[in-house]
Amino acid sequence: MVSTAAMFICIRLFATFADGAESLQNSLGFYMLAGLVFSLVNSIVRPIATIFSLPLLLLTLGVFTVILNAAMVALTIWILPNVSMSFWGAIGSCLTISLINYLVNITVTDVK
Asked: What is the pLDDT of residues 65-74, one digit of tens each?
């Protein structure tokens, strides 16, 4: 649910829709698909990309993580139909998603 809400905000703020695809902007199913694709990309592709980029992560003391997260957002947008996003939009999206995840983590308590 958090990924769906985060992708809704990021797509509304940073993405552009192709001509004739304005109906996707108001489709709940599209944003649910975006959240699902983003979750799958983060759980399947991100660990592999992190392993391959480990030298860059160590060299930059973890700052390369922002680029890695932006690449995951860009891959998600590339998979989605009729949506595009610039590089800076992907950077803004990954920062927005990080902020949303941080806020959710500090407000939701652990269930024991």
From this structure: 999 999 999 9
